[in-house]
Amino acid sequence: xxxxxxxxxxxxxxxxxxxxxxxxxxxxxxxxxxxxxxxxxxxxxxxxxxxxxxxxxxxxxxxxxxxxxxxxxxxxxxxxxxxxxxxxxxxxxxxxxxxxxxxxxxxxxxxxxxxxxxxxxxxxxxxxxxxxxxxxxxxxxxxxxxxxxxxxxxxxxxxxxxxxxxxxxxxxxxxxxxxxxxxxxxxxxxxxxxxxxxxxxxxxxxxxxxxxxxxxxxxxxxxxx
Amino acid sequence: xxxxxxxxxxxxxxxxxxxxxxxxxxxxxxxxxxxxxxxxxxxxxxxxxxxxxxxxxxxxxxxxxxxxxxxxxxxxxxxxxxxxxxxxxxxxxxxxxxxxxxxxxxxxxxxxxxxxxxxxxxxxxxxxxxxxxxxxxxxxxxxxxxxxxxxxxxxxxxxxxxxxxxxxxxxxxxxxxxxxxxxxxxxxxxxxxxxxxxxxxxxxxxxxxxxxxxxxxxxxxxxxxxxxxxxxxxxxxxxxxxxxxxxxxxxxxxxxxxxxxxxxxxxxxxxxxxxxxxxxxxxxxxx
Lengths: 225, 287
What we know:
- The complex is a heterodimer of chains A (225) and B (287).
- Chain A is an alpha+beta fold and 225 residues long.
- Chain A has helices at 22-37, 65-76, 102-108, 113-121, 203-206; strands spanning 3-6, 11-15, 43-48, 52-57, 90-95, 125-130, 137-140, 155-158, 162-166, 169-172, 177-179, 182-186, 214-219.
- Helix content of chain A is 21%, strand content 28%.
- The radius of gyration of chain A is 19 Å and the shape is globular.
- The mean pLDDT of chain B is 94.
- Chain B is mostly beta strands and 287 residues long.
- Chain B is elongated and about 60 Å long.
- Chain B has three helices and 20 strands.
């Protein structure tokens, strides 16, 4: 059942699932694919959340938002997760599991470091959305045994490529930035190659991932930092 | 022909090139960015007959110092930093002159626009600099700014200048009651929380920047502390567990997990943007 709520003068937030999971992921992809194929009048962009999709409209549509909300829900009524677009290839990300929070996280969970690595690298993760900083993926679903709250005080600088756990999600820092997630490893794969950004760049050329992708972490032996 | 117009002698507390931002890339985690006070920046471009998208120079508070390298028409608008040139009117700046912004008196953000607009690289369609996300670089002392070709400005014979109407100049120390739309989590806030939010004057915190403005006052007590992360629009009023609202600004994150009680009417967000720390603001619900 897809529901909607107005979000300011020019936007609609669709809510299409109660919780994350394969069905929600597929339905979210199907909704975005349908809206890209048949965009309602004045649609500027569709932004995915875990169980939500934000639709932003041109300011000229302000008076029509209540109507557009109902219209879009009607347009999407027949969709199901079964009509999702073709599967994305699984992208592989090598990870050196030597992050500064790895040992303390394992101790807190009464797991060995090896078990933490196995539990983290076992699933094929779904890229639900990108956020926090350009190209930073929110990946799900993380094994509940690894769910860990963010650090009470964020670190002032976390290096790009740090693989981290924040709450129920895992992700990869895309640029050097402050951050509060628990760092468990690092990858040489760049989420955002900002050095190559030029005027002609398209997002897919500088961002490694996009919403809807699937990824697998592969543990590798560490080299020098 | 692009021409060198200014040398940045000092940036002061912050200087960057901005235009009206890059909406449309939130799916990649890229915030829209753009000028903090779109009202003041738009007037600067309008007086110069620039296109509305022409990049302008955005200065934070005070301390900036520019040297004019080539005579050009320009307009300065926005925050009053005791500039040696008048604001809100078209000016002829002559090669060799210096423009200084020594002492902030009103507002936070000052804009300098030049005829034709500044020439600056556009990433994802916009010249707006977003250093935190590694999209473009903030300006540094010694940088030279060039202006784009294609100025359409030609003041009629005998017209010495052009200024904006006095009532279009915002008095940044006295923002009006700002209109707020109900946020997506409006229903999660109790009647008491809503009253606390709309009935008090909030104080803008010193912990405010292009990412977000924090508001200080009687705290809210959101019943639900976190939600599943969802897309966030600029102007959203997020309420973290501590109960002090944060208004998402132009460079704010594109997703968030705090309940949103409301969204500041986009046309009025520029008022909030110019509120210095300590300024009091009040909100009213859009009806």
